[in-house]
Amino acid sequence: KNQVEQSPQSLIILEGKNCTLQCNYTVSPFSNLRWYKQDTGRGPVSLTIMTFSENTKSNGRYTATLDADTKQSSLHITASQLSDSASYICVVSAGAGGTSYGKLTFGQGTILTVHP
Amino acid sequence: DGGITQSPKYLFRKEGQNVTLSCEQNLNHDAMYWYRQDPGQGLRLIYYSQIVNDFQKGDIAEGYSVSREKKESFPLTVTSAQKNPTAFYLCASSIAVWKITDTQYFGPGTRLTVL
What we know:
- The complex is a heterodimer.
- By secondary structure, chain A is mainly beta.
- Helices cover 0% and strands 63% of the residues of chain A.
- Chain B has no helices and eleven strands.
- In chain B, the strands form two sheets. In chain B, strands 2, 4, 5, 6, 9, 10 and 11 form a seven-stranded mixed beta sheet that branches.
- In chain B, a hairpin with a 6-residue loop joins strand 4 and strand 5.
- Chain B starts with a strand and ends with a strand.
- Classes of the chains: A mainly beta, B mainly beta.
- At the A-B interface, strand 4, strand 5, strand 9 and strand 10 of A face strand 5, strand 9 and strand 10 of B.
């Protein structure tokens, strides 16, 4: 069964500090991995997407890494801001031959709270 | 201003009633999706549509129905057969299901509460 597990479940940090969120997956065959940010009561917004051949992708203060051998990904947030408070969701897609099967497996999310 | 809109933002339903959640997109995307989000759980796929007049069941389709008569619209009906419908419902769209770098764009969501 395809699964995506995220850790920690929740995290509290002070404004300006860095943090790293983890994602382990057992989706096979692997196509791509995405990180989404979801503000409370809103829809998720895509931060990064990585295919099998990519091991790092940055989007401003967000840097995602992917280790396809160990089936792990991390999202590193640099110099956190109050607006970074949200749920961060790891999403993995299965696929092969350069295409995606289109079915996504979602992690349960990590709730990040940034305090002033 | 392109994007996905969902209405209403909040919806209250009495037990035994059917309700329909609206989802509209002006991104010219072929694929549209409905997800359900419950506290502490990942999003779960209810239905998806790759093209007009076609849709497929997702992982938790029981008690739900959809239609795709227009490219821009993908309404979801929560029927009285859905045993536990209270949840946050998210609609999404993407260019094409099969594209390896396809990104799903989400609407703002509808929170459904059964009284």
